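Sequence only, no structure available. Ideas?
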Amino acid sequence: MVVKLKTLGGALFFAALMTPVAQAQDCRLSLNQSTLDYGVIRHEAVLGTRLLHLSVLCTQPSAIALRFSGAGDAEGFRFGQQGRFRLTLKHAQVDGRAIDWSGAHLPGDSSVAPLPPGQVLVARAVGKRLIAQVEIEVDLPADALQVRNHVVLEGRGSFELVSPTVPLSR
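Reply:
I predicted one. Tokens follow.
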């Protein structure tokens, strides 16, 4: 007899990294937490949207650009074998002022910025402190929950500070 257990454990792991160019600018990127644990996921579960808080602190006013590196494709970053997660930056401020983002893939409203695999977002302001909310949305197909044993789903990636290709004006 085969018993189907419809439970999965899920976690997303994030890290904050800086490229050597960003270190030369003397900036530091941080997140309020590096892991999101979805716990046991049952077949009727709705994973919903989760939020992280990202901040970048620089010793001198700097142009700030971000990238998230992780396994992914055009639909998002990988979460387990079949799932995907997507990142969106919202409510960004540089030195207390609301800002827009520039990037090749942005829709009309550049204050809400999706961060797909392989893309860089550049803050349209120069400053010492950037803060933003990172919205994480997970899509997991129903058939991914049809498992026989406990399965751990993971998504991994790193936020990186990168040097903008064109200096921004103040």
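The chain has one helix and twelve strands.
Hope that gets you unstuck.
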